[in-house]
Amino acid sequence: xxxxxxxxxxxxTDTTINGLDPNVAAVVAVAIVTASERFVxxxxxxELLAATNAVLAGLEPGVLVTWNGARFDLPFLALRAExxxxxxDLELFPPPTAADxxxxxxxxxxxxxxxxxxxxxxGRWGVHLHLDAFAVYxxxxxxxxxxxxxxxxxxxxxxxxxxxxxxxxxxxxxxxxLEAYVASDAELARVLALRRYPAILNAVDRPERFxxxxx
Length: 215
Prior knowledge:
By secondary structure, this protein is α/β, with parallel strands linked by helices. The protein has a single domain (about 5-205), classed as 2-Layer Sandwich (Nucleotidyltransferase, domain 5), CATH 3.30.420. It has helices at about 45-55, 75-85, 100-105, 110-120, 135-145, 150-155, 175-195; strands at about 5-15, 25-35, 40, 65, 90-95, 120-125, 130. A seven-stranded mixed sheet has the order 3-2-1-4-7-6-5. Strand 2 (about 25-35) and strand 3 form a beta hairpin. The longest helix has 20 residues, at about 175-195.
């Protein structure tokens, strides 16, 4: 898979209630960033989810890059779509075993591998595979250097300039500010993944042998 087929994805959720809980909070923005285009989707949630699916269906087969998406973005989108009856091409698969994570991410500590296994899923969106770049960085850079592998903290450490807002007050952002913020995070996820190319290809989800949770 070539670098131009890496697509960054990020979501923002309704923080007027618990924005971390897909049982109560809506998705308010989705960004998909390619090597040459930026798609930011906002508006009523049903239309937003359907439009996200349509954008991804129109892209050449690639790797969908998220930051902590195995724990947050993909499960959140899947549950919201299920609740609203919006069909998505997104499939989620059971978490890998601790042994799989040790091999895939190069984790030497069995305890760390078990923690990754406990909370993560694997995913595929139509013709696109999924890569959670956060898991890769946390497995080596985070454990070795003791760095926070939050997206903004790591981006600053690597001399990028992320857009920063009060993440607990997304509702205070203007539409233009929200668009810039969610697109910035999607772009950062993509750029940070490509810093590790081609070795990071080993960490791409390979869920073929599992039965999906959502389909």
